[in-house]
Amino acid sequence: MNKPLKLLTRAVFGMFLLLFFAVTMIQFVNADELRANELNGRTIKNGYKVERGSILIDGDPIAYSAPTGDEYRYVRQYTNGPLYAPVTGYYSHTQGMTGLESAMNQDLSGSGNAQFFTRIMNTLNGVSPQGSSIETTIDPAAQEAAVAALSEAGLSGAVVAIEPKTGRILALTSTPSFDPNVLSSNNDADIIANYRQLEEDPTAPLDNRAIGGDLYHPGSVYKIVVAAAAVESGTAGPDTKFANPAELALPQSSAVMHNSTRAACGDGGAETTLQQALVFSCNIPIAEVAMQMDRDAVPDMARAFGFGQELEIPTEVTPSSAPLPADQAQAALSSIGQLDVRATPLQMAMVSSGIANGGTVMKPYLVDQVITPDLRVEKEYSPEEFSKPVSKKTADTVASMMEHGVSDPGAYAQMAAIPGVRVAGKTGTAENGTDADGNDLPYTLWFTGFAPVDDPKVAVAVVIENGGGEANNYVGGSFDLPTGVGKRVMEAVLSE
């Protein structure tokens, strides 16, 4: 009789231990993760009963909670919703949350560990719960200039602008955009209908092209990475000479590479240089220098700039891709930003920022401060080094070549020139293969650069889809469309 009782007692005791362990894991260890899960509908609905903190730009709210008088108490509102949607994201009953609304949810909702004692005191004092506000790094002039430049011309694409010395993100745009207000009402049926319409829109307004979505072939803007690898390794310098044929048969392959002009690089002489290859965006000299280095040299340099690495700003960023080429032919094709090389505009802005900042890439970030309801600074974010892919000497050399890419006669990025300002830049035109009928798909157009060269205040990356779209017959050029957008953004920052 005693033996069965002992077994039963031990079994019950074991179940209590398991229950205690499970409750501990749920309530303490995994609590923050479960609260932050975008599928947790209870968290979202409870969140509407809290006066959620605001998202601020220069102290002005671009997202805030307004009282409603209904069971939810508050509704999320967005000022200039489409302008800032790539930054704020949305906060919705049925669709969860994205952007800073998601990444900073614990602070905005007042549910973070840092606000634990504040919540207790508010409960004891009968004070209604409130979340903290967050001050972003966004420069409204840069953001507005970027969106205006894209929207006025009917362009689909994205712009990212970064302060090279700190990593502060000054602009983060994606067009076409959407209005987060249509997903934040207290009418679930309306939200679902609006979300379905946005989701089915062929222009994909919900994609944040600046940091995610379908990544782009970077095309010739990737040549900056190749040049950095060549200079850093001692393989080549600006004046290193290369054979200058009009076409190049790739080794162990039937493929033949051409320059975009289908002619020899630059003035068509028998030889050309690395600097001319960047200035006139020639493919063949870049492929030649890439094949002279180890196959892992360029991918390793790309990774040092951030390719393939996880990054949160604090919004999660889709990693860019620069895989190891299998052979020399692949090394040549990937060196001009084709094959399996893919990048976000944020990543290309990081490349330009690193060159601008003397070889040091600062970690990009989107939030300056977290501010409590009683206006105390609860958290302050400081600049943080991300990587140092090249020496200052190499960075200065590449910066000089990029400056020639704007200032030299006939240079492809010359439309980025700003009177009285030294500007560095690089254009890119990426091929996207063919459709089912064998027709070439529209190119992806790029520009990246920074200014002023002698004291960089802003680095920018611009991507434009589908050759500029219908308004440009899908065959627009990178020398004018993205370059003009980048110039407007840089001017907006420099004029302040």
TrEMBL record:
GO cellular component, one term: plasma membrane
Domain of life: Bacteria
Penicillin binding protein A dimerisation domain ranges (all copies): 52-134
Family matches, as Gene3D superfamilies: DD-peptidase/beta-lactamase superfamily, Penicillin-binding protein 2a (Domain 2)
Alphabetized Pfam families for the sequence: PBP_dimer_2, Transpeptidase
Ranges for domain Penicillin-binding protein transpeptidase: 157-472
GO BP of this protein: cell wall organization
SUPFAM superfamilies for this protein: beta-lactamase/transpeptidase-like (SSF56601), Penicillin binding protein dimerisation domain (SSF56519)
An MF annotation (GO) of this entry: peptidoglycan L,D-transpeptidase activity
PANTHER family (UniProt xref): PENICILLIN-BINDING PROTEIN 4B (PTHR30627:SF24), PEPTIDOGLYCAN D,D-TRANSPEPTIDASE (PTHR30627)
Listed name of the protein: Penicillin-binding protein
Source organism: Leucobacter ruminantium
